[in-house]
Amino acid sequence: MDKGIWVTGTGQATGARDECVITVGSQAREPSAAAALAASSASLEQMRGVLLDAGLPPSALATSAVSLNPVYDDFPTVAGFSAEVRLTATTRDIAAVGQLLSAVVAAGGDAARVHEVSFRHGDASGLMAAARAAAWADARARATQLAELAGRELGDVLAIDETVTRPRPSGPMRVAAAADPGAAGVMSLDAGEGVVVVTLTAGWSLR
Q: At what angle are helices 33-53 and 97-108 packed, to 10 degrees?
């Protein structure tokens, strides 16, 4: 029985990342659990205020973690409590991320923490469509060549299986002091480009 021909094609599309996700937090240590949580929450509220004042809608903010733990000097003697609240914010104003993050940290004071800054595509559908088209062209070209080598022609498409991957950046994101001395403390952040890779495994009958 003629089982046809099966090949795998790969295509990719590259585009500038246009969305940034930052995770910040506020950590405080106090003699009591209630005081530690209150201090951490108060600091984070100041940081949250900066994000809202910058134009981010409340829907772009989400509490991502809350922790409260005892601090021991000599176990099991409790010397105090450490509390931390984390907030994740999403913005599409890439050019202002460095300035925004610096302002957020300043508002939080010594309790402020920066846990993660990552860039991504807000809508990767266009890149996926382009990568998919490239993968299909690659798969069909491979199948056509193999069929010709075998003295046959491609028939109907039997099946198509798709795999989509988004590789991480090859290097770390740059975080550095701004070149402008008048903007001391403002970080320079590079969003870079992201790649979407589509792999198609397709089968054709032969005639």
A: 150
